[in-house]
Amino acid sequence: MLRRSKLIVLSLSFLLNITVSQNLKCKNNNDAGNVDWVILYKGPTQANGKVLLSTAPGNWENGAAALTEPRGHSFAGSLTGVVTNEANIKFLAYNNVPPAVPNVQTKSNSKGVIIVSTTPGENEGRWIVHTVPGFPAAKTGYNWPAAENAKGHLLICMTIAETQINAIGWSLDTTKIILQIIQK
């Protein structure tokens, strides 16, 4: 238990020592602008889902593009730097069903990504939590898992401040996450 806590603290300390950049806000419904948070609910068999934005709370919109598309919707844009190579972006991904790792046994059902930038001078990043097994696969391009099209999913992106990393680390340690990748 103590070793696990140290690993998570060290991993998040790596992220905490990075100054994050303002361009890392969550992306809006069509990936054309920034928002503080976005929630996407994709019902079973739905392609686009419904989106709720911080700029219009209480107003669910149809998703701008299918989640299988590599651009044109909030989560394709919000995962920039994880699914593509970006020199100034670092991330920590966790998933109880990591991509290409069969038969993982865990007590956690946690999936997400913390994304920060090494560009000096700002204090924002993204924390994405979701329900999609094996997603995203790092540095392989945006690729929604075809097996998940028939299932319902929830994806939440929150713009975070560097000062929130310790609280996030405590939360992740409590849920016994499996670190998928730390991109340095």
From TrEMBL:
InterPro entries: DNase_II
Keyword Signal recorded: yes
GO molecular function: deoxyribonuclease II activity
Gene, per the UniProt record: DNASE2
Biological process, per Gene Ontology: apoptotic DNA fragmentation
Protein name stated in the entry: Deoxyribonuclease-2-alpha
Annotated signal sequence range: 1-21
UniProt KW Ribosomal protein keyword: no
Keyword annotations from UniProtKB, A to Z: Hydrolase, Signal
Family: Belongs to the DNase II family.
